[in-house]
Q: What sequence folds into this?
């Protein structure tokens, strides 16, 4: 586990949430709080944005049926997660609003109206790719032709605008796209390149190699991909689908209360 990371709580799924504290800026700097279920889903991009920015944050993981979420839900502003808070906002819901707030706070939304429009376009497009759900789940059982066609258009967006696709100056649009492309890679290694999307594969690999993203991907604090997110056939028949991890169990770090 990272020297900046501690775990509290327990992960037995019956009694409490787990809070992961990440402190790359040191213990005295302000920390944001992000609450979500114990899966990537709509919580993954906010985590990725915070990790890329090198921000201090607490990631509070709830199991869908445990007492912590049943107790928390009535006080949530909209009754669902993700939920975000920092020194500027409290009880911020809606994943896109959370991502844009983090982006504005850490300078990840582009400079100037034209750049911001290009960033927003990529952000929205990457969450609406055909045969994906919210940019984090792939429906592999369908004909992927429409998906490939749309991703080809996204590749053209990266080529057309200097505001996006620059690994040295990543934006919320770039990182939203990376989350999706990384899901493709983890679900079907090599799929992007073998479907004529070599430029997107190169972009995915370049973002994956940036220091903070590489550290996050290789850390125990990242939740494993589930068979639902991976789009494995038959995921609908697994109970509970949300926590059927595709490549092994949840990290033992979640069982080690600090």
A:
């Amino acid at each position: 586990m990272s020297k900046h990371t501690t775990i509290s709580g327990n992960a037995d799924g019956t009694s409490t949430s787990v809070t992961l504290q990440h402190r790359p800026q040191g213990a005295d700097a302000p920390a944001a709080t992000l609450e979500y279920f114990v899966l990537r889903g709509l919580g993954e991009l906010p985590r990725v944005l915070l990790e890329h920015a090198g921000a201090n944050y607490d990631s509070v993981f709830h199991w869908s049926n445990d007492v912590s979420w049943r107790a928390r839900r009535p006080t949530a502003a909209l009754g669902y997660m993700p939920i975000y808070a920092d020194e500027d906002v409290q009880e911020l819901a809606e994943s896109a609003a959370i991502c844009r707030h983090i982006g504005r706070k850490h300078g990840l939304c582009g400079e100037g109206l034209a750049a911001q429009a290009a960033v927003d376009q990529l952000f929205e497009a990457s969450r609406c790719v055909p045969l994906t759900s919210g940019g984090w789940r792939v429906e592999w059982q369908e004909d992927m032709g429409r998906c490939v066609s749309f991703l080809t258009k996204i590749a053209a967006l990266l080529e057309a605008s200097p505001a996006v696709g620059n690994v040295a100056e990543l934006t919320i649009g770039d990182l939203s796209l990376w989350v999706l492309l990384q899901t493709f890679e983890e679900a079907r290694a090599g799929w992007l390149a073998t479907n004529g999307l070599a430029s997107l594969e190169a972009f995915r690999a370049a973002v994956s190699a940036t220091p903070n993203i590489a550290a996050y991907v290789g850390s125990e604090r990242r939740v494993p991909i589930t068979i639902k997110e991976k789009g494995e056939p038959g995921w609908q028949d697994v109970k509970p689908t949300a926590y059927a991890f595709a490549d092994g169990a949840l990290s033992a770090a979640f069982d080690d209360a600090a």
About this structure: Residues 129 and 150 are 7 Å apart (CA to CA). The chain is about 40% helix and 10% strand. Residues 113-212 form a domain with the Glutathione S-transferase Yfyf (Class Pi); Chain A, domain 2 fold (CATH 1.20.1050). The chain has two domains: 5-106+249-255, 113-212.
